[in-house]
Write a structure and sequence with these properties.
heterodimer, A: about 625 residues, alpha/beta, Metallo-beta-lactamase, Chain A, Rossmann fold, TATA-Binding Protein, 3 domains, seven-stranded mixed beta sheet, 18 helices, B: about 775 residues, mainly alpha, 41 helices, about 70% helix, flat, disordered C terminus
Amino acid sequence: MKLYCLSGHPTLPCNVLKFKSTTIMLDCGLDMTSTLNFLPLPLVQSPRLSNLPGWSLKDGNAFLDKTELIDLSTVDVILISNYHCMMALPYITEHTGFTGTVYATEPTVQIGRLLMEELVNFIERVPKAQSASLWKNKDIQRLLPSPLKDAVEVSTWRRCYTMQEVNSALSKIQLVGYSQKIELFGAVQVTPLSSGYALGSSNWIIQSHYEKVSYVSGSSLLTTHPQPMDQASLKNSDVLVLTGLTQIPTANPDGMVGEFCSNLALTVRNGGNVLVPCYPSGVIYDLLECLYQYIDSAGLSNIPFYFISPVANSSLEFSQIFAEWLCHNKQTKVYLPEPPFPHAELIQTNKLKHYPSLHGDFSSDFRQPCVVFTGHPSLRFGDVVHFMELWGKSSLNTVIFTEPDFSYLEALAPYQPLAMKCIYCPIDTRLNFIQVSKLLKEVQPLHVVCPEQYTQPPPAQSHRMDLMIDCQPPAMSYRRAEVLALPFKRRYEKIEIMPELADSLVPMEIKPGISLATVSAVLHTKDNKHVLQPPPRPTQPTGGKKRKRASDDIPDCKVLKPLLSGSIPVEQFVQALEKHGFSDIKVEDTAKGHIVLLQEAETLIQIEEDSTHIICDNDEMLRVRLRDLVLKFLQKF
Amino acid sequence: MDPECSQLLPALCSVLADPRQPVADDTCLEKLLDWFKTITEAGSSLLLLQENPCLLGLLCHVLKPQDLSPRVLSFSLRLAGMLAAQEDCFQYLQGDSSLFVASAAGQLLVHILGLSLQGPAEGHPGLQTGDWPVCAQKIVSHIEESLRSAATPQITQALNVLTTTFGHCHDPWTQVLWGRLSPLVACLLEKDPVPAAHSLVDLLLSVARSPVLSSSSSGLWETLAQTLSHLSPTQAGPLALGILKLQECPQVLRAQAFAVLLQPLTCVLEATAQAPGLLDSLDGTGGASVTVDTLLPSKAACVGLLCRTLAHLELLQPLPQRPSPWPQAPLLGATVTILRLCSGSATPTSDAGGHLCAFLVGCVRVQRAALDFLGTLSQGTGPRELVTQVFAVLLEYLTSPDSSPTVLKKAFQATFRWLQSSPETPGCSDLDPHAHLFLRELLPVLPKRLCSPCWEVRDSGLEFLTQMIGRWGGQAGFRRALLASEVPELTEQLLRDPESYVRASAVAAMGQLSSQGLRVTPASPEHPGGQQKSLLAELLHILSTDSEGFPRRAVMHVFTQWLRDGHADVAGDTERFVARVLQVASQDLDWEVRAQGLELALVFLEQTLGRPSSHCPYAVTPPVAAPPSSLAQALRPLCRVQLFEFAFRALFDCDRPVAQKSCDLLLFLRAQTASYGGPQGSGSVPEVASVEAALQRWQAGDQGQPLGYLEPEVVVAVLRSMDLEGLRGALAESSDRVEKSPQSLLQDVLATVGALGEDEADCY
């Protein structure tokens, strides 16, 4: 069993598991931090950006892809944990010769589609006149200004995919529900479990009859909108692959939400605008819910909230229809019937308005001071670029970063100097290390495998021993482009016995509750299922090639020696020897059993747990005598 | 006992003795005991038993093994003990599985032992226990047997009996008893682990506190020293604290106890490799240094021990007998380090420190305990550098989004205490420059806290603000900083907070801001034409419309303070203000608001009559006009604001404190009017009669009819004709005296039992 680690990003994992005869890809996250090396794509021509000296606006955005560690066309299935971890899917399904199936839950697919659609839309609506790629040449890259010249593996950066590629990739997905058992080639069974992190987010169990691998990706134990995490089903795993922990282990989401609300209120009260760069789904639902409860108490009822995204409308509506994937509280609301999320009421009362882009209706409705939620959190493309340019000059305004995926300082770099206030309130509801240690205590896997970042404290806080996985035995760590042999051997395989064969068996009880029987059969293996079938009846050899060959196949049943079982009690054995005239017997204890020495006869009898050896010098008579004495203590059948 | 109760008693006893009729509420059993206690104290227990044989029946009945509830058993035992105080004729039970019964039985033993040794005949029991009465000897050998037992519960009971004995009785015979039993107690220390350590500590402290036992140095101090070194750190803490609290105690033992108490903090300092100077002074107190791994091995142990240690030191700090020299600097250093470990900002330099950090990060319990102790430490001084660290760590907590609401509250409290104790600049009562700098950093944090979505945070932020303004509102530096911030404006917005506690705190804060002239004047360019309501109008609005009591009470407090201080908004037209407030307050459903209305009325009355208040020695002298020349003239303003109508209504208030307060006010007023001489004019007798008739109706519960404007003469006449003293006497009796009567109690118990039966019937 091997694990190929294609991503070094712990929250955007991409691993391939070879288990029995299957090749399973676990997630395909897309690390977009390389976009931070590019200039923002402005919606309207920005003289400031285009006049920056020494920079060029010519290249399209590119994304980091994986190294070729494994031939991706050999991947049988891809299991997706949540919509953030499927953003690289088109690169894999469309360009690698992949012919397998992708499994994901319905909300994952639908919201994943929204995220991809938004991404493609953001990039495509500002088309490039030309693109350049010569700079990817190492010799030229070396001449570029920092940090570009320090960027690694730029050759693997890719252009953004198209909508056709997205649609084609998504068409390969098969929808699954929580706890649904999916057979893969009869060899293994995979099951998605609720992971509590996002709508439809899953952890996966990959198991055969005797082995169980759990794959834990982004999971949360906090009570937010999704169904709570299913921990119990992770118990008794041989290996637990643990990825997708919180990216900000020192920030408590509750505290951060408080910080978010307070800063928002302070800015708006002073007549400033608030910009929240965010993804169109996920934490935004929780933020809107918090604000719903907060705005009245903070006297903000008259402040408009704008949500601008090409998929804003779908995102808000989708969230309301996935009732079965929501936490219990929200589910019960559906039966009242009420919309599970209060943002429906915010929309009804005109407090929250959503627009596909800042062009069109928005420009006529736009009223300040206001709060704007829009993408992309990298500040490199999407409507957020415009708002940064618009509001950046006034210190009354505030940009509040809530998504933890990008360094906010790097994101802000091209906008400097900036007068607007910047607040960093990363809200990451995924597991923190305390929760992980509780989880591991609870589910007790035999082995834990995780990205190497989780096995030591973060570099910036090397003294925080609490910010790492602490388990026994210590977790096995992996890094990008590594192949890990998972630390357990398969020992058993399940084999079925045909009824007629089973009928013919004559079990013999060798000790109470345990019976044995010898089986002569043909082992038939097909589709990873093993069946014992009755041997063909021996037919009279009547000559002819065909028959002869058939009789060759018949196992040789006639020369069967009886099978032995039981153990030899040394003291009684020695007594028996004495009775049969042997004297001068010495018994030595060894690590594995005993050695009985017959000094006179210069003979050794080695008795071990699973073998007995009689060593004597060319005295076959003596050996047979001794053998018969040994056999008296064993059962035969 | 009155005959009515005697009649009810047999029924009660049979109910109690019947396990099928459970007594639902054991508070009534407590009340019964209280009642029996008053009876036995007043008369003979024997007579009580003879007159009420049912009691004896009950006591005999409970001694039979049966399925009786522990409540009734405990009640009976305690009753028996109470009666035994005179009769000395009851058996005892001990070792019952019920904690209550065991404790009652233990107490009974103590009583019997005490009684048997101070019986009238003996006078002075012998110095040998052999000379003691048989009963006492039996008890002593029972205790000895228990102390030798291998079962911890038995040892615990024996120790508890001794603790109670030595705690209550300081007769010379206790010395004999301790002399005989102390070797057995010392033997317990040789066991590992020490059994019943908690009870053992209690016993030893009880012995050490007993003047008879501690003076006769019978190895007590050695035993205490030995115990300190044998017990686990967690168990030794309470003992160490107890020793340090003793008035008389050898210095060596005190040093040892203090070292034990300080051990966990020494560990913290060691693990984080603090400046050696700090360590030395903690270490120098004599204890052997212990490593973190042994003292603070697991998270639970570490958190528990640190919390207890901090709490113990907090108790010790203000005591006169606290160890001297008090290691203020190392304690400050350790507390700051703990707080920084909890917030994750400390950088431990050793493995042990790393473990400690992992245990403590984000631990709210330790944070609370440490902040409490840090606040207490503000009473002493510290090196400049450490004080800087204190303010830095406080600021860190006040700023951090991860501080939980309770931690934040404690951080605010500690901050105020430290600011309060920071040295004042000579010749000026303003904050010292150091604290000023701190304040400049703190003030930007406060607005964020006032906007928190968590109401507890908004509330504690406002409380802190109110305290700060109260203390430094007059100081130029503070005023400048505050006015430059958004705090005053935000505070005003919080008057409309959805949470009533926050509104109440905002009312108090606004009252302070306004008193100090710190309320931001409106009509800024951003609010064109924004004719802001006056604060007085806004508070009056809250008083008359707020649905919760807390904000309304807060408004009344602010108004009273404003009136007392001669606040500008009030001084303009005081009469109108008082009239309006009293009118609204009289209709309030909350009795505290009405009571506070009387307080305000009293202030007004004192100001009007020109007498400085005797009730409020700290009040600013109000700007009073020269005393009016005639009584009528003096009373006229009171009549105009309808103060009398308010006070008379309050006199018959259904809430006793309001009525009492009103009665006091009217009595005070009558005394004042007396000083103006005899009645003036007597032509208004019919009016007096009609007022009196109205008051009688009010007293009868019909408060509908208003009195209208009353002439001063009528008021004086009514006041003089009323039996205010009698009323005060009646009010002084507890209003629930009827409900508290034993007869009602007995009826209640029986009724509950009856009701239980009825409920059962209902079920079918």
